[in-house]
């Protein structure tokens, strides 16, 4: 599978999303729909962006009892998204149930990824709040292996952790990485960041890029720069 840039469409409404995407007249970027846009607009926004020809990563990070996740995944599968995700912390049993729910009668299914540790969680918070000992890297490695054993296709992780995931789970196991910034760009609230070029070197298969593209003066040029550096 070829490396791809995914644009995080972190907008509050369908109108704002269309206004942004209408600027792309020559390409159909792979887009990520997160909680904000999905909760505001519902499944209709997924169908609309699919109809416009975009591939879709539906980033809803499911985490519930196995039966509930299985049934929810069946609904997302019928929405025909290309990629979706859940929290590895939900256990292997939950992840296996998710795969079952996601698999269509013809055997096909969207790519399923596990969120390991959110990049906003520091090691201190992981120890003190979550009561998980060891390093973040140990936890990411372990969660990635559990996800692989449950049959998932890859993980969402920091680009700085993509290498250790590949080492633990093999080259074919996807790493999808947010926290991307241009070398000369604004960092904002992201902490563990890297450039598209460096993410490629470390082993990301997909980079998820939000503000460096959505807040750029020329989003199309920023997207093309990302593609040029990464793909
Ligand atoms: O604007 P920015 O490039 O920081 O956007 C990154 C996107 O990736 C956002 O939609 C954010 O919610 C998401 N994300 C993240 N870190 C994670 C998981 C998801 O930044 N660990």
Account of the 3D structure:
With 231 residues, the protein is of the alpha/beta class. It contains eleven helices and eight strands. The chain has helices at residues 14-21, 35-41, 43-51, 66-78, 92-102, 123-128, 136-149, 162-169, 196-202, 211-214, 219-230; strands at 4-8, 30-33, 56-62, 83-87, 111-115, 154-156, 174-177, 206-209. An eight-stranded parallel β-barrel has the order 1-2-3-4-5-6-7-8, surrounded by six helices. Helix 4 (66-78) runs parallel beside helix 5 and helix 9 (196-202) packs parallel to helix 11. The chain is globular. The structure holds cytidine-5'-monophosphate.
Give a short synopsis of this structure.
This protein is an alpha/beta fold and 231 residues long. 43% of the residues lie in helices and 16% in strands. It is built from 11 helices and 8 strands.
Summed over residues and divided by their number, the pLDDT gives a mean of: 96
**Proportion of helical residues:** 40-55%
State the helix count. 11
| Major beta sheet, strand line-up | 1-2-3-4-5-6-7-8
* Cα-based radius of gyration, to the nearest Å: 17 Å
- The beta-strand count equals 8
Task: Tell the overall outline.
Answer: globular
The span between the termini is 11 Å
Provide the list of bound ligands, each named once.
cytidine-5'-monophosphate
* Biggest sheet statistics: 8 strands, parallel, barrel
Class from secondary-structure proportions: alpha/beta
